[in-house]
Amino acid sequence: INARPVALRAAKEKALGDLMEIVKDIQVDSTRKIKDFMMERQDINAQILDFVQRDAMVSDQQYLPDGTAEIKLRVPIYGNLTRIILPASITEVEDVKLPAVVSPSDTSASPPAAHKTAPRIPPTSLMHSGIIVDARGMGAKPAMAPKIFDENGKEVYGYSSVDREYAVRQGTVVYTRDIVSARTNQRVAANPLTIKAVKTDATGKTDLVIGNIDAQRIRGTIQETILLKQCRVIIVLD
Q1: In the chain, where are the structural domains located?
Q2: Cα dihedral value 155, 102, 92, 55, nearest 10
Q3: Per-residue pLDDT, 154
Q4: Mean of the pLDDT values across residues 179-196?
C-alpha cells in the first residue's frame, strides 16, 4: 500500500491550519489584525477561511524518513485577501496617467506635456513619480493599511486616500529596509519625493507622523494626489 498520498494529505491539512493562524495574525492597521475582522463579521470570517483553502500554493513538499510528509504553503497578501479586508466603500478614481518625469540628472530639460487624460498639474521643473517615507530609527512596524498623519493629527495618507483597485492589486504601500533600493523601485521611480518621518503613532507603531511642511508638500498639488490614489508609496523600516 502506498502511504505517501495519505501522508501528503495529512501534511497539507496541518499546513493549512498553520497558515490560517499566520493569516489571522497579520496586522491590518494600528489597532486591528485580520482575526479581529473575522470576529467582528461572520461574512469576513467565511471569506478568509475560503481564501486560505482556495489561494494557498505549495512552495515546497518532501517526504520524511519516518513516513510522514512536510508541506510549505504560501498565499499572496495582495489580491483577494486585500479585497476582503479593505472597506468596499473606498471610491475608485478615473484611471489617469502621470506626466513623464524629468530625470534629476537632466534639469535643463523641459517637462513633457501631460497625457490628455491627466488632470492639469502646475508646471514644475521636476515631477515627482512617487513618495518615500523614511521611518528608520523609530521602531515602526509594517501593516496592510498604515496611515500617515501630519503633526496636527490630520490624515495625509491612508486607505481612504487610495483607489481601491490599485490597493487590491499592489497593496497600499511597499516596505523595504534599504533606502537606496527604494529610490530605484518601479513603484516610485524615477524621481520620488523622499520625506523623513518624525515619529510613529503610539498605538501599534504602524502609523507614521510627518512634519507639517512635508505634509503640505504632499497635499500641495494634484500630482501628489494622483500618486496617493495610485499607492505610489514606499516606507523604509529598520
Answers
A1: 4-85, 131-236
A2: -100
A3: 96
A4: 95
Sheet of 208-210, strand order: 155-157, 148-149, 208-210, 193-200, 131-134, 233-236, 174-176
Least Cα distance to 230 among 79, 122, 97, 76 occurs for: 97
Dihedral-angle region of residue 237 (phi above 0 means left; psi in -120 to 50 means alpha; beta otherwise) = beta
Are 233 and 227 a contacting pair, CB within 8 Å? yes
Q: What is the pLDDT of residue 113?
A: 38
Tell whether the torsion through CA atoms of 31, 33, 35 and 39 is positive or negative.
positive
How do strand 193-200 and strand 208-210 relate by DSSP bridges? Answer: antiparallel
103 contacts: CB under 8 Å, gap ≥ 6? 109, 190, 191
Question: Which ranges of 71-171 does DSSP label H, i.e. alpha helix?
Answer: 80-85, 164-170
The Cα angle at residue 151 between residues 149 and 152, in degrees rounded to 5: 90
pLDDT in tens, 82-114: 999 998 766 554 444 444 444 444 433 333 333
Dihedrals phi, psi of 126, to nearest 5 degrees: -135, 115
- Tell me which residue of 224, 78, 202, 200 sits closest to 148, measured CA to CA: 200
Kindly report the number of other CB atoms within 10 A of residue 33's CB atom: 18
